[in-house]
Structures are given as structure tokens and as C-alpha cells.
């Protein structure tokens, strides 16, 4: 697994930009940062870049802007469903609100990940 990194200044900048649009929370993941709205992950940041969640409804906007997917393993055959947000969008509150709303809508459509039954059973067995 490749470790992600987000500087304190970039984290602060992203929180200011995204937080002015709507309430968000963050959680560190593998050295990077994941952004949540209403409990759903809609963006992640890694190494000075922010990526928004995509599906067929909003991916064309990212492709038209010349942006591609997050490749945490460097393998183009294994992209994540997050695409790089154009820098100019991050600087424009109106555009950011629109792109953010679409990414959050995609996150809301995605099925929440269920907790593994095997993990739960293993934990229960250990607690006995």
C-alpha cells in the first residue's frame, strides 16, 4: 500500500475552501485525508491534490477538464472512483459548490460498506 501525504497547510486550505460550502468532516487515511459530508466519503486528498468521487454522472466533467483518476497503486488498470479536481474549481466558490454537490450525490448513491461478518465473529470470539 502506498502511503499518502497531506501537508498541514494544504489540509487547512482544503478545510477552508470546502467548509465554506457546507459542513464537512475529515479522517486521516494512510497518511492522506478523506472528506465526508453527511457521513459519506466524497473526496480525498493526497500529496497536494484533491480528488472528488465520480460515477458516470459526473466523470465526463473531470475528463473534459483533462483530469484523471486517483491511482494509489500507480496501476492505470486499478483506478479508484475519485478524479482530480481542477484547480480553478477549487478557487471558485460557485463552481466548487456545484462540483462538490455532484460528488456528494455520487457518494450518497453508493451503497455503504457493510462491516465484515468474519471480523465481527472473530472479535466476539476473542471477547469470550
Any overview of this molecule?
The chain has 128 residues and is α+β, with helices and mostly antiparallel strands. The protein has one domain: 2-Layer Sandwich (Yope Regulator, Chain: A). Helix content is 40%, strand content 20%. The protein is built from five helices and five strands; from the N terminus they run αββββαβααα. Strands 1-2-3-4-5 form a five-stranded antiparallel beta sheet. The termini are far apart. The C terminus is likely disordered.
The number of helical elements comes to 5
How far apart, in Å, are the first and last alpha carbons?
Answer: 33 Å
| Biggest sheet overview | 5 strands, antiparallel
Record field, number of beta strands = 5
Q: Extract low-pLDDT stretches.
A: 119-128
Radius of gyration: 16 Å
Amino acid at each position: 500500500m502506498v502511503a499518502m501525504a497531506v501537508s498541514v497547510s494544504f489540509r487547512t486550505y482544503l478545510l477552508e475552501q470546502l467548509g465554506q460550502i457546507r459542513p464537512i468532516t475529515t479522517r486521516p487515511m494512510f497518511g492522506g485525508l478523506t472528506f465526508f459530508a453527511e457521513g459519506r466519503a466524497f473526496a480525498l486528498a493526497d500529496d497536494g491534490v484533491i480528488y472528488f468521487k465520480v460515477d458516470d454522472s459526473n466523470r465526463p466533467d473531470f475528463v473534459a477538464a483533462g483530469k484523471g483518476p486517483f491511482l494509489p497503486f500507480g496501476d492505470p488498470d486499478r483506478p479508484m472512483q475519485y478524479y482530480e479536481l481542477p484547480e480553478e474549481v477549487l478557487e471558485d466558490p460557485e463552481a466548487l459548490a456545484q462540483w462538490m454537490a455532484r460528488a456528494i450525490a455520487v457518494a450518497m448513491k453508493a451503497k455503504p460498506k457493510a462491516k465484515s461478518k468474519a471480523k465481527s465473529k472473530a472479535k466476539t470470539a476473542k471477547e469470550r
